[in-house]
Design brief:
The protein has a two-stranded antiparallel sheet with strand order 1-2. The chain has a single domain, classed as Alpha/alpha barrel (Glycosyltransferase), CATH 1.50.10. Helix 8 packs parallel to helix 10. The protein is mostly helical and 276 residues long. The chain starts with 6 loop residues before the first helix and ends with a helix. Strand 1 and strand 2 form a beta hairpin. It contains twelve helices and two strands.
Length: 276
């Protein structure tokens, strides 16, 4: 018998172990209930004047990676069009390099994790895929300061297209990419929305071959990302991802995070987003 994700158990895990923002994200994902002002204050807190978020509490330098993480949380809350998210998206667009990519500020060199290390080409590819992903999915809704633009990425269309070209230029013929695992599904999502279907499909084939060995948190992130950009839920890679999530769901309803048990709720929310 094929295993099936137990969404009710996953919901119960988040309710039992999540904080106020986690539970608000769950409510928005499941029923569309908008978060209250207090929740939004917490979710948007710590934003720097330039529009980005720092990588750690009390940080003074905005981080591309941390800002993308916050945008993902705000997206769950339906807050991607609010002023805080708009400022963050504008900051990301402003930070794009002439070659279409992104890097962290050099001031973060001593504290950045390996996937965000300034000057590292692998980290640069990942950050480019991540920033372009959020400018793709949020640009049309956020609209920055300009008029509604129906191109992919909205007012950020040119930024996203330049990023897509940068990503494609570094792909290998077999669909593999010179970076961290997550850069694969993020870049596949960007290229899918750019209608670079052949390039996106090559990446998806490479990803599908690795799903059986991926951690539950990574499978959830992969599936949620592809769903967010409009890949059909019956697409073979998403069917395979849901099967893997069903096989790895714990008896308490949650999934294990790669970053420690304190992030299990986040991993579980991502899985719910992938399967809803």
């Amino acid at each position: 018998m094929t295993a099936v994700v137990d969404i009710d158990a996953a919901i119960g895990f988040v309710v039992a172990h999540g904080d106020v923002v986690d539970r608000a994200r769950l409510s928005r994902l499941r029923t569309g209930t908008p978060p209250g002002p207090d929740v939004l204050d917490v979710a948007e807190g710590g934003q720097l004047p330039d529009g980005g978020w720092p990588a750690y509490l009390e940080g003074k330098v905005a981080s591309v990676d941390a800002t993308c993480f916050r945008l993902a949380e705000l997206d769950d809350l339906g807050a991607i069009g609010r002023p805080a998210a708009r400022r963050a998206l504008d900051w990301l667009a402003f930070r794009q390099l002439p070659d279409g990519g992104w890097e962290e500020d050099a001031a973060l060199a001593d504290t950045a994790p390996e996937w965000a290390r300034p000057g590292d080409p692998e980290a640069g590819f990942y950050l480019t895929a991540n920033a372009a992903f959020w400018l793709t999915v949020a640009g049309l809704d956020a609209r920055a300061a300009g008029p509604l633009d129906h191109r992919v990425g909205g007012v950020y269309a040119g930024v996203v297209h330049a990023a897509a070209l940068s990503l494609v230029a570094r792909l290998n013929p077999d669909g593999s990419w010179p970076s961290f695992l997550a850069a694969g599904w993020l870049s596949a999502g960007v290229l899918f929305r750019q209608e670079m279907f052949q390039e996106s499909a090559r990446i998806q084939v490479a990803l599908a071959e690795r799903i059986a060995d991926m951690s539950p948190a990574n499978v959830a992130w992969l599936a949620a990302s592809l769903r967010r950009v409009g890949v059909d839920e019956q697409d073979w890679i998403l069917v395979r991802a849901r099967r893997r999530l069903a096989e790895t769901q714990r008896s308490d309803g949650g999934w294990e995070s790669d970053d420690g048990h304190q992030f299990d709720v986040h991993a579980t929310l991502t899985a719910i987003r992938a399967c809803r």
